[in-house]
Specification:
The protein has a single domain, classed as lipopolysaccharide transport protein A fold. It is 7% helix and 58% strand. The protein has two helices and twelve strands; from the N terminus they run ααββββββββββββ. The termini are far apart.
């Protein structure tokens, strides 16, 4: 069993993960709970982070994130009465290693995922692929702008070693497969 360090801020932070998972922030109805499981978790108040390591599995409703590692970075914003309480706000969420995001209608995989809460942008980086039904798109990076409902897919560059140790750049391209009915 892994070492687990939990502080009061960790409990508040886990509650605020709802912001990351649910696109309709501020809706009056109650949000489903978030369940995060991992082999280890540590919280560092000094750096305002919570780190989940090993077989990370985060769920809220039908949304699920799997990865080897998940780090939650948060800002600490003081309320009007600094002595009374503070409010945590997520700055970004970073998942590394075997990343898989899935919902009822969508699946995305990559080497790394970064979610920025300020502009509600999701980046899938490294061998990024996304499926909706049987349709698939892949590239080095997929950027999804949640509030705008739009995405961008970018190819990448790979170094290829040829004969005589010659190094050449090979550009990868975006690939999309559309299944017709």
């Amino acid at each position: 069993m892994g070492n687990i360090k939990i502080s009061g801020i960790s409990a508040v932070l886990l509650f605020t993960l709802c912001v990351v998972f649910h696109p309709a922030i501020g809706v009056a109805e109650k949000e489903p709970p978030i369940v995060v499981e991992a082999d280890q978790m540590s919280s560092t108040e000094e750096s305002n982070t919570v780190l989940f390591l090993g077989n990370v599995d985060a769920k809220q409703g039908d949304l699920r994130i799997l990865s080897d590692e998940m780090t939650v970075y948060y800002l600490e914003e003081a309320t009007a009465d600094k002595e009374a309480s503070t409010e945590q706000k997520i700055e970004k969420l970073v998942c590394v290693g075997n990343v898989e995001l899935s919902s009822a209608e969508w699946l995305g995989t990559s080497d790394q995922m970064i979610y920025y809460s300020g502009n509600r942008k999701v980046l899938l980086v490294g061998n990024a692929k996304a499926w909706q039904g049987e349709n698939m798109i892949s590239g080095e990076k997929i950027v999804y702008y949640m509030d705008e409902g739009r995405s961008e897919v970018v190819g990448g560059t790979t170094m290829v070693v040829g004969e005589g140790e010659e190094k050449q750049e090979k550009k990868s391209r975006v690939k999309m497969t559309i299944m017709q009915k």
